[in-house]
Design a protein that fits this description.
The complex is a heterotrimer of chains A (about 350), B (about 60) and C (about 230).
Chain A: H1 15-21, E1 26-31, H2 39-49, E2 55-58, H3 70-79, E3 84-89, H4 95-107, E4 112-116, H5 137-150, E5 167-172, H6 182-192, E6 196-201, H7 205-217, E7 225-230, H8 236-245, H9 253-262, H10 276-302, E8 307-312, H11 321-327
Parallel strand pairs in A: 1-2, 1-8, 2-3, 3-4, 4-5, 5-6, 6-7, 7-8
Helix pairs in contact in A: 6-7, 9-10, 10-11
Chain B: H1 2-11, H2 28-45, H3 49-63
Chain C: E1 2-6, H1 9-15, E2 21-27, H2 30-33, H3 39-55, E3 61-67, H4 73-77, H5 80-85, E4 88-91, H6 95-104, E5 109-112, E6 114-124, E7 127-132, H7 148-151, E8 164-165, E9 168-169, E10 172-176, H8 178-188, H9 192-196, H10 218-226
Parallel strand pairs in C: 2-3, 2-4, 4-5
Antiparallel strand pairs in C: 1-6, 6-7, 8-9, 9-10
Classes of the chains: A alpha/beta (about 350), B mainly alpha (about 60), C alpha/beta (about 230).
């Protein structure tokens, strides 16, 4: 490998990179910052995730809703003793702001970066805002790689002093249209410099296996670590919503039926009839089934050649990560020493 | 027709003041019915306010 | 063509407030063919305003005139007299037309009667769609003749994003995904390799981001002087 390293045999040497390079099945989780300036929210969520994942993704104004910034939240997460994966979208910043923020993120101790295009602002809480999209996710990957490996800004200007060394991540949407192009788009991201990939939520394992087959044909799994996205279903309604309304997510009917079956004991009761206690019991039954399904998905995904780990997206339900990781036999998380690899 | 009604509404007139009916020369009965219906409708809606306004203007003028 | 849309009558009333003598000026070019500001629309707008003013109980004068092209001085010279008599000119031209009138008649108060929307074309009777964003650095040669700057909601150069579903953009199900169109066209022509190239960050300086743009053709200028 000709890519310059941090002098320790690793590109970056982040915990996530070390775990992946040691061929452990990696686990990342997601943490959504609050819609307030409250650091306690981050600390509470971090406590739920600590020890159960190798790094925590911090979303960047997820679904175009204003939240505490990814980098600021990441600094708190690091203080709490976890490793962060900073998410960076191209929606809100131009190339100047992105590069400046990345210099700062590295200075604050962040080592992993997920490069995203970003959800369109019309889906969020400031739909009248202007978007930026000065660059796209692929170009972002190239820029971050250029800063890390060549010490140059996007403009081509070289800079002296420490370069920001990020373990570069990218997203993949295996089921979005045009489906046939998705493995090639992944190839483009890896060619651009992505070191690891986190995919959109997978519920349809056979469909994902087909995607991975193509990925293996293109030899992509050997050039980047691919983490399959998983997430526990909370209710049958959520499952149906994702199936029908979220582009690029396939939810098999069997899974929806299984979620519905979990609510069977309370079926036939009208809104007025069902008591508060029964409602809670039903919600718990749904959650338990959702977590169980997630565990099984992880176990199935682990069998697919080329899947290097999972990325658990328990949106506003960080409590679910612990039982999922334990249930999938992925606890405790490996400790890989910071020594150089051969 | 929808466009014209929209314009009338924006001006501040009742859009129902215009109507288009397609009839062939052999449809005398339908023609009478449509004309009668339209006349009735206009009567209930009252005078074209633009016209009454005009009269009003003249009135004030003569008062001066 | 430049595609525009008429402002609501209430807004026109408010914009022309205070003017006793309103001149509605139509334009015979782009906005005529998109049925927003041609002679016909100018006459209807003038007539609508007259009726609306009358209903409001005032007797303001509204007349209309249409020029071949509002965006060229020589056509504006033809209506100099009418413009001079008006207290306010309501331009049914695109934003260029409004500004041309303002620049040509420094003493005249000019207001826009249209919202200039985009550069596009009719895709069917009564439907216009955006096609060009005038970015100043055309990349249609890389994308099979389909512009992602104007037609992808995120103006991606390396699309499609994950929001493409069933050929449509997640931002608006009525908008075709530009990158699906590009993909279909390039694969249909056996040119998938073009899509495998990573397009570098765009030079947005050629677009509006570099400041107001101007094209100077010295050859044409000289030719004019030689006459």
């Amino acid at each position: 490998m000709t890519t310059p390293t941090s002098g320790n045999g690793y590109l970056v040497g982040s915990n996530l990179e070390r775990v992946l390079r040691a061929n452990h099945f990696a686990v990342t989780a997601e943490l959504g910052p609050p819609q307030s300036a409250d650091p306690q929210v981050i600390k509470k969520k971090a406590a739920l995730l600590k020890g159960y994942c190798d790094a925590v993704n911090i979303t960047d104004n997820q679904t175009a809703i204003v939240r505490m910034s990814s980098i600021a939240s990441g600094a708190i997460v690091i203080q709490e003793g976890l490793e962060a994966v900073i998410q960076m979208t191209c929606r809100d910043r131009n190339r100047l702001a992105i590069q400046a923020d990345l210099l700062g993120a590295y200075a604050l101790g962040m080592r992993n970066l997920l490069c995203l295009t970003g959800d369109h602002q019309t889906f969020g809480n400031h739909p009248n805002s202007r978007n930026v999209f000065d660059i796209d996710s692929l170009q972002l990957i190239q820029i971050v790689k250029g800063m890390r490996d060549e010490g140059v800004f996007q403009s081509g200007d070289a800079f002296s002093g420490p370069e920001p060394r990020f373990f570069i991540g990218a997203a993949a949407a295996p089921f979005a249209d045009p489906v046939e192009f998705r493995p090639y788009r992944l190839a483009k991201k890896i060619n651009a410099g992505a070191n690891f990939i986190q995919t959109q939520l997978v519920y349809d394992v056979p469909a994902f296996a087909r995607f991975m087959e193509k990925v293996r044909q293109l030899d992509l799994h050997k050039q980047a670590f691919i983490l399959a996205g998983v997430g526990p279903l909370k209710t049958p309604t959520m499952a149906r919503y994702m199936k029908t309304s979220v582009p690029g997510i396939l939810v098999p009917d069997a899974l929806i039926e299984r979620m519905e079956a979990a609510g069977k004991p309370w079926a036939g009761k009208s809104k007025e009839e069902i008591t508060k206690e029964e409602k809670k019991a039903r919600a718990d039954a749904y959650k338990e089934t959702g977590i169980q399904i997630c565990i099984e998905l992880i176990q199935q995904l682990r069998q697919i050649e080329g899947v290097a780990g999972v990325h658990i997206m328990a949106i506003e339900w960080e409590e679910a990560v612990k039982p999922i990781v334990e249930g999938a036999g992925l606890y405790p998380r490996p400790m890989v020493a910071e020594k150089a690899v051969a | 027709m929808e466009h014209v009604r929209n314009i009338l509404q924006q001006i501040g007139l009742e859009p129902e003041r215009v109507e288009m009916v397609n009839l062939s020369s052999a449809m005398a009965g339908e023609f009478v019915a449509a004309a009668t219906q339209m006349t009735e409708r206009i009567k209930t809606m009252g005078k074209n306010p633009l016209r009454s306004d005009l009269l009003g203007d003249r009135h004030t003028e003569s008062e001066r | 063509m430049i595609v525009a849309d008429q402002k609501p009558l209430n807004e026109l009333k408010s914009l022309t407030r205070g003017g006793e003598n309103v001149l509605v000026v139509g334009c015979g070019t782009c906005v005529t063919v998109c049925f927003a500001g041609g002679a016909r629309e100018a006459a209807i707008t003038a007539s609508s305003l007259r009726m609306a003013f009358k209903l409001d109980g005032n007797s303001r004068q509204v007349s209309d005139v249409t020029v071949q092209r509002q965006c060229e001085w020589e056509y504006l010279d033809q209506i100099a007299e009418q413009v001079k008599e008006a207290d306010v000119v309501l331009s049914l031209g695109c934003g260029v037309g409004v500004q041309a009138i303002a620049e040509h008649f420094p003493e005249t108060w000019v207001v826009p009667g249209l919202n200039t929307s985009f550069m596009g074309m009719p895709t069917e009777q009564g439907v216009w769609a955006e096609r060009c964003a005038a970015c100043g650095d055309c990349i249609l040669g890389l994308t099979g003749g389909i512009c992602p700057i104007a037609r992808c909601s995120k103006s991606l150069l390396n699309g499609p994003c994950g929001g493409s579903e069933g050929g449509h953009c997640e931002v608006n199900p009525e908008t075709p995904c530009a990158w699906q169109l590009i993909y279909d066209r390039l694969t249909g022509m056996g040119k998938l390799d073009v899509l495998m190239e990573i397009q570098p960050p765009k030079n947005w300086r050629a677009a509006r981001d570099g400041g107001p743009r101007k094209i100077v053709r010295e050859d044409l200028r000289l030719a004019k002087e030689e006459e």
